[in-house]
Amino acid sequence: MLKTHNDFEVSGPVVVVVLDGVGVGKHDAGDAVFHARTPTMDWLDDVALKTTLLAHGTHVGMPSDADMGNSEVGHNALGAGKIYDQGAKRVDVAIRTEVLFERGSDDSETFFEMVDHVTRSNGTLHLIGLLSDGNVHSHIDHVEAITTHAARLGIKRIRLHALLDGRDVDGQSAHRYIEKIEAHFEGLSGVDAKIASGGGRMLVTMDRYEAEWDMVERGWKAHVLGEGPAVGSALEAVNSARKENPDLNDQYIPPFVVHDSNGPVGTIEDGDAVLLFNFRGDRAIELSRAFEESDFDKFERHRVPDVFFVGMMQYDGDLGVPARSLVKPSKITSTMGELLASAGVKQLAVSETQKYGHVTYFWNGNRSEKFREDLEVYIEVPSDRVTFDQRPWMKAAEITDATIEALNPNSGIRFARVNYPNGDMVGHTGDFEAAVIAVEATDLCLKRLLAAVRKLNGVAIVTADHGNSDQMYQLDKNSEPIRDSQGRFVPMTAHTLNPVPLWIYAPGLDGLKVRELATRRLSNVAPTALYLLGLEPPEHMDDPLILKRSEA
Ligand code: 3PG
Ligand code: CO
């Protein structure tokens, strides 16, 4: 239970504003945040308490500091006020220590059920997922390890349904991962292992938050039914898409189905097992539902094979999706959302579809349900269905309208979190000019939101979950932008390793001081917000970013 303190009381709401994908870059040619005109952020530099937060690697529970941050780990840390081992790390450990592959170990039960199922039915082991080493949703090393052990245990037929990345890794790198996994398959003796279908991740299978079920339908058709453009190999699919458009990012490679002279090489049939090897849930839940729900009605599945379906992890702890998973996620508990709900404090969460689950599901520790229906207001502004270089302003204005309206003085809302997706969603397109506009659109809306917070006598904590728009071009070893053969800068679509900004805008609260800490990171935000709400941050959380009055 949360205790109160008497240091001061913020009478208005405490609002955490997440400028998704807006990191603190190197002020170089590709730093769209630096190049954007941002009068509001510049003004915050003058009037607010200011620092930066680490948002990558071990600071957010990833295996190493070479791992960039991402929205899942970032919002988990923001909402929980504590660092948990993230999916990437848990799977890495289970595979490296081989507990996943030791029959009889606590962590291998589902893996062996899956293997035994395929052996008994003399069926095929299908692996579906994002084929890259981005380590945001998946890692190719996991696919190699799992198929190596499946082969060792006698599985004879493996089919990979490869979603091509270009979003967490270089924009045109799909061929490298395809060649790597095909070489690995060649080396598995006595096993018939092939890529059977796939496509770019933003067209096929990996939709999130029900933004576009059509993507999942295209995936179902290609992976399960073997319907879609026929190719002789995955590499052929990549090459012909690039021939048509040499600048095409891998995210947008159309769906493909690999055929041999008998037709599709790997449809999914009764008796098979299907492993969705992504560990992150947002873009894995919809396909899981298509496999598992008996009354599924989001699209016509035509044929529903009777398979042993398993996810790399359980993606939704509340809904129990999927029913079976290989590796247990960290149990993220006593998040700030949960604590406020049990303390009877009313909360608000607002974003547009693309990031709606980030401020609800990820914020609450990968739980999709509310803690207290009567105390939590969740607002989803429907996202456009375009690539966001075409609409870099996205729904920033509508998110602002909705937040200001919801925070009206009679609302009783004491705490809010709001996510502006622009810096991230536009950053992922690799379009520098669009990213500049994205950051400017956010800045303009922030001005309006901060004015509203001030009027309500509230406080705003403005930060980000990880960087993205702060580095839009690939850099060489000397941090110089790389140019292609035509002299153009090579876009970088992925997140960055950069820290993120942190401003505490607390008009009327004099004397706040930033706490000296060895590292300041995202997990320091929740205890800060609780303290500003007049509540003592609980023991299990990291330190607040500001000194308590008694310490100042
Ligand atoms: C995505 O899913 O869009 C990217 O892999 C990561 O972006 P996010 O972590 O910002 O959602
Ligand atoms: Co992103």
UniProtKB/TrEMBL annotation:
Mn(2+) 2 binds at D20, S71, D465, H466. Residues 13-536 form the Metalloenzyme domain. Pathway: Carbohydrate degradation; glycolysis; pyruvate from D-glyceraldehyde 3-phosphate: step 3/5. GO terms for cellular component: cytoplasm. Its EC number is 5.4.2.12. InterPro entries: Alkaline_phosphatase_core_sf (IPR017850), BPG-indep_PGM_N (IPR011258), Metalloenzyme (IPR006124), PGAM_B_sf (IPR036646), Pgm_bpd_ind (IPR005995). Its cofactor is Mn(2+). It is an enzyme of class 5 (isomerase). The keyword ATP-binding does not apply. Keywords: Glycolysis, Isomerase, Manganese, Metal-binding. It holds the Pfam family iPGM_N. Mn(2+) 1 binds at D424, H428, H495. Residues 107-316 form the BPG-independent PGAM N-terminal domain. Substrate binds at H137, R167, D168, R201, R208, R280, G281, D282, R283, K355. The keyword Phosphoprotein does not apply. The active site is at S71 (phosphoserine intermediate). One of its GO terms (molecular function) is manganese ion binding. GO terms for biological process: glucose catabolic process; glycolytic process. Gene3D superfamilies: Alkaline Phosphatase, subunit A, BPG-independent phosphoglycerate mutase, domain B. It catalyses: (2R)-2-phosphoglycerate = (2R)-3-phosphoglycerate. NCBIfam families: pgm_bpd_ind. Belongs to the BPG-independent phosphoglycerate mutase family. Catalyzes the interconversion of 2-phosphoglycerate and 3-phosphoglycerate. This is 2,3-bisphosphoglycerate-independent phosphoglycerate mutase.
